[in-house]
Amino acid sequence: MTTRLSVSRLRNWAGKRLRALFARFAGHPSTIGFAGTAIAVAILMGVTWLLRADRQTRYLHALERAQSVASVVAASLGGNIAVYDALLKEMVREAEDPVTPLFPERVRDRVRFGQTLSRDFLDDAYVVDRQGRIAAPLNQPPGAPVSVADRDYFRSHESSPSLGLYISQPYASRTHGGALSVALTRRIAAPDHSFAGVAVLALRLDHLSTLVNDVDSADLRSIDIVEEKGTVLACDPCADSRPGMLVTLPGNAARNGDLATALSFPEGVSAMDYRSVRVPGASMYVVVTPSNEVLMREWRRHTLLFGVIAVMCAATLVAGAWLLAAAMRTRASAAARLVSLAVTDGLTGLANRHALDTKLAAQWQRAKRSGTPLSILFVDIDHFRHFNDAYGHPAGDDVLRAVAKNISGHLRRDSDMAARYGGEEFAVVLPDTDAQAAAVMAEQVRRDIERLHIDHVGSETGMVTVSVGAATGAADACESAHAIVQAAEAQLFIAKQSGRNRISTTVMRRKTAPAASDAASDPASHGG
Fold first, then answer.
1. pTM higher than 0.70 for the full model?
2. pLDDT tens readout for residues 313-329
3. Cα–Cα distance between 122 and 208 in angstroms, integer?
4. Which residue of the set 94, 424, 443, 450 is catalytic?
């Protein structure tokens, strides 16, 4: 029995709490929608964070793979460079010996053996004399000796005795039919240490490319072997570069070992997407770029799956929250629409006559308390009956809407009001506005409606115009707001009698009747 009472009390308490909660939200139904939206956004943010973390992990794995490939290729190429450098030193030693020939047969045999060890990367070997002629080729070609005095490696060794191993810029070979090659060179010194020539080992770039072609590059964007000055020596796949292409290296970035941040990257690829390793013993770098498209394919599938699930859950939550909020707001919205219809003119969207009377009563009480002036404008479309006869009532309705929109566009304060007074007449209530400011607004309304250039064959100007009457009064000068309304209507009549398309204004004086017209002006007198 006690247990049943406890459960009953708990249910009653929970029911009261729920009713109190719904009653609290009834006045602010949007709170439910915002709360549901916030929860949905939190869910999406959480899923997004998890997916981004997974992507970052995959990205780091891709960079580790790129670093590993770059290290392997650099070590393999470095081993070949070590063999080549040993051959070059042997060639230099024999060439500097005054007893032996420049290129003895035993050295030729070693070079050929080196070709075998280096998988045919080595294409040619020769000794260049001090005049720049190939004096001792590996295989003696027919014809006159070939001059290479214009090559960068010859000029560099000639001017720099301590240069050491030098890797040239790519060039078109003059001994192998213009094949694109790069030279590994060392300086040959005379007994007096003067320049005596250069020992050269030539590598064809297409042969060098076989080194990177053998690497499994299915998950890589590209593998590039780049010379220190920025020349691409080999690539596979050649996504954004090709052998012999020069890439921009700002400053000494490559020499500082930061080639990855020195290269000119293709659009959409940042420096952080590269991994580079310097080739041991040579001024070369192996630069590897992982293919994000391949490595992230599985991640995209996961993203699509979890993203669709998260979006569906979030959309369901948001839709449910806002549908509930909409249901709670239905009665209030319906009531608000009824109130709006009761105070709004259906054709022009301005306030109607009832709303105008309410506004005038409220603003007159305020003017009496504060002693501030109250101004009222009456706007009437000139020859509107003739317009309807000439163009039809649908066109007349369009003119009414255009004039109403123009008038409401001049209101700058929340306290101001524009209303349709009846037919083609409009009233504007301007609290705390003196006669001068009312006259300025009246003229602006008249002028801007004239500038709409709406054709009207029945008008003297050939277009739709308005006449405006304005009256300003205060509590110490008139008995009620109705008196100001009557004065404004009288000024409108004066403006029409004076020729239309003009304004007429007055200020209520300390007497029972309105003062004589202070101004009945044509457009010229008010800037129109």
1. no
2. 999 988 988 888 887 77
3. 9
4. 424
